[in-house]
Design brief:
By secondary structure, this protein is mostly beta strands. It has a single domain (3-174), classed as Sandwich (Immunoglobulin-like). It is 3% helix and 32% strand. The chain has one helix and eleven strands; from the N terminus they run ββββαβββββββ. Strands 1-2-3-7-6 form a five-stranded antiparallel sheet, with no helix packed on it. The protein has a two-stranded parallel ribbon with strand order 4-5. A two-stranded antiparallel ribbon has the order 8-11. Strand 6 and strand 7 (125-133) form a beta hairpin. It starts with 16 loop residues before the first strand and ends with a strand.
Length: 177
């Protein structure tokens, strides 16, 4: 299944977990309500996260997830394959007020590439879809199996270098048999 197809899954079938985040800056006064839904498909666990944000903020969010624009890992960055060496001539050719990416990226490989994501902003809401194989084959990853219980945390970043909205408790993902 391609990442672009994640939005078409039957997310309404999955019971939502609503998490009130706190202590952040930016969206919803630093207290966005995040709704999570999970769907296993036998080989992967797929997660949908949604929350309200009255400003798309592509200049800052989402730093961890792949937007609808396949050419960039996040706005303000671009793939290493498109990077070029900076020269005075190249710099002089950039028009004033141009937003220049601050980070050069490349696809995550190895264990860091086990989680794949896509995000979309519309109607005042962010939606992020994440997917990961149940068994990644890595000694460093939790191998997820139906009936197991897996701890996770939840946080959101919005115009904040340090004041990320988060939920202090630990939550658990449990896939039914």
């Amino acid at each position: 299944m391609e990442a672009s197809e994640l939005s078409t899954l039957p997310w309404a079938r999955a019971e939502p977990l609503e998490i009130q985040l706190a202590n952040g800056s930016g969206m919803d006064g630093g207290r966005p309500l995040v709704r999570l839904r999970a769907l296993p498909d036998g080989e992967e666990v797929l997660v949908e996260a949604t929350w309200a944000d009255d400003d798309e903020d592509y200049d800052y969010w989402p730093p961890l997830f792949l937007p609808d624009r396949p050419e960039s890992v996040f706005h303000g960055s671009f793939p290493k394959s498109r990077a070029m060496e900076y020269t005075e001539a190249a710099g002089a050719a950039i028009p004033l007020s141009t937003i220049v990416p601050g980070v050069v990226t490349e696809p995550f490989l190895g264990d860091r590439g086990d989680v794949r994501c896509q995000s979309r902003y519309g109607d005042g809401r962010w939606t992020v879809w994440m997917r990961r194989r149940l068994d990644t084959g890595s000694e460093f990853d939790a191998q997820i199996a139906p009936g197991g219980r897996y701890a996770f945390g939840c946080a959101a970043f919005d115009h904040a270098g340090k004041r990320h909205a988060y939920a202090p408790p630990t939550f658990h993902l449990v896939l039914e048999d």
